[in-house]
Amino acid sequence: MSDPRITYLLPCSCGKEVSIELRQAGETVRCECGQACAVPTMREVRCLRPAPASETTPADTKPAWGNSQRFLVAGLVVVLLAAVAAIILYRQSPTYFVGLPSPEAERQFVERLPILATLQYFHQRILPGIDIPEPAWVQSKRSMVSLGMATLSGVGAIGLILLGVGVAGIVRRR
């Protein structure tokens, strides 16, 4: 049985030879001249003239990315996209109470009121409590942001699982 890493020389109609590997059997390759050359079956490829050993043999070349690296990169991409989307979504969260006056501004306002107006202010604002309800649109938007954050958390968890699978595969290979 021949070594699958051996390269063979496939003759082209232009007179040049194209270097092919056994795994390319049945495919079409291009010669330097631009001509498409059909690679024969594995049995016929083995009958071709082997290419002379070059300075870089397939054993010396780096292997292509394996599944571990693919999982690692996919996990990183998913985690990063989820993080960016979460930041954008968080920035969309409504901040309804931002425009309300500070306690110091309220205190100064109350100090300038006449006594009767201060009593009315107390009965209208302070006595019922500080609980100022949010409008319905703010509550709706806040619940949509919460749902989006929960979804992005799930997507981020999937990304972390992919990262873990990739790292485990790389560690196991060493």
Task: Give the oligomeric state.
Answer: single chain
Largest pleated sheet: 3 strands, antiparallel
Helix content: 40-55%
Q: Please list the strands of the largest sheet in the order they lie side by side.
A: 2-1-5
What percentage of amino acids are in beta strands? 5-15%
Provide the gyration radius in Å: 35 Å
**Cα shape:** rod-shaped
Number of strands: 5
| Series of secondary-structure elements, N-terminal to C-terminal | EEEEHEHHHH
What's the mean pLDDT score?
Answer: 81
Query: Ranges with pLDDT <50 over ≥5 residues?
Result: 55-61
The number of helical runs is 5
Taking the alpha carbons of the first and last residues, their distance comes to 29 Å
Structural class: mainly alpha
Q: Strands, helices and their partners?
A:
Layout: E1 7-11, E2 17-21, E3 28-30, E4 36-38, H1 42-47, E5 49-50, H2 67-91, H3 103-112, H4 115-126, H5 136-173
Antiparallel strand pairs: 1-2, 1-5, 3-4
Could you give a short description of this structure?
This protein is mainly α and about 170 residues long. The protein is about 50% helix and about 10% strand.
